[in-house]
Amino acid sequence: MQKMIFAFIASAAIVMLLAPLFIPMLRRLKFGQVERVEGPHAHSAKEGTPTMGGLMFVIGITAAAMIFSVYDIALSFSVPAILMMLGFGLVGFLDDFIKVKCKRNLGLRAYQKIIAQLLLSFVVAYYAYRSEFIGPVLYDPVFGEINMGWGYIPFIMFVVIAIVNSANLTDGLDGLLGGVTLVYSIAMGILFLYFALVLNKSLAGSPVFVAQSDGMLSMAIFSFAVAGGCLGFLRSNSYPAKVFMGDTGSMALGGAMSAMVIYSRSPFLFLLMGICIVASAVSDVLQVGSYKLRHGKRIFKMAPLHHHFELLGYPETKIVTGYMIVTAITCLAALALYI
């Protein structure tokens, strides 16, 4: 428990210490936000705000997770989770870099993004499938164990790509994705700690399961490091934001959440715990589908959903607070299914 708390504090502290160095540097490099022409008109004032700030919490999370992980088992748990975060963060970084250098809202082409995401998600899914600690068996607190067999690989690829892109869509208001991920990561950290305690109590003496218990503890530490990184970043990213995380940060957080989902072996639980992130993706799909199938008719004033609320007149701060409250409630409901 102490390591989880220390990882949280260390990650937050590193991000807050990096902010006074990174934000002026991003300004000097002219790495400013390029707002979408079709986005809310109020967001035009945000044009030029330093972006790619996600680099700060990627550094903080990586450092804290590595320092406080259970060392003899880290290579099988926290290190792959960190690599997932870094891999998708790199795709986001390339997307951001092209945007700021070319001064356009379009970074990587759609086909370039999907190829990169397919490759990364395949590596992740194949690793998880072959891992003695994960494997093709999923667990649902309602329906029990589900053996996916070879179908596990394409299923996990879909889950990872969906989470990463949903996180990217959710990053549309000051502090929104950071706040939601903060709550989600704390809940997942508690869940991993519970798994570690249960495994340690019921399966003591079995080398494989003792290792898995330590691994769950490492994932709890990783989850709290992610939460700490988000908290530290919110100091600069809450309304009015001094810096944006960019695709660098949103895709890195998507990769981190995907790692938590995979190691928990409960991907269906994300539909409940990450309901606000799921809502961003679903609202976008519904909006596009409605526009094309109903000859230009829209369901929402603007998608994703948080922009719909924004155009209804809700302040950004209230939308972000509302999303965090909903996430806290759904995460507590999900934890109640296990604990």
Write a compact overview of the structure shown.
This protein has 339 residues and is an all-alpha fold. The protein has helices at residues 2-28, 54-68, 78-102, 110-130, 152-170, 176-202, 207-237, 246-264, 270-273, 275-293, 305-311, 316-338, and strands at 137-140, 144-147. It contains 12 helices and 2 strands, in the order H-H-H-H-E-E-H-H-H-H-H-H-H-H.
Query: What's the number of extended β-strand segments?
Result: 2
Helix content: 55-70%
Q: Counting H and I runs of at least 4 residues, what is the number of helices? A: 12
Strand content: under 5%
Our Rg estimate from Cα atoms comes to 19 Å
Order of helices and strands: HHHHEEHHHHHHHH
End-to-end C-alpha gap: 17 Å
Sheet having the most strands: 2 strands, antiparallel
Strand order of the largest sheet: 1-2
Mean pLDDT: 90
Regions with pLDDT < 50 over 5+ consecutive residues? Answer: 204-208
From the spread of the alpha carbons, the general shape counts as: globular
Question: What structural category characterises the helix and strand content?
Answer: mainly alpha
List keywords for this structure.
339 residues; two-stranded antiparallel sheet; 2 strands; mainly alpha
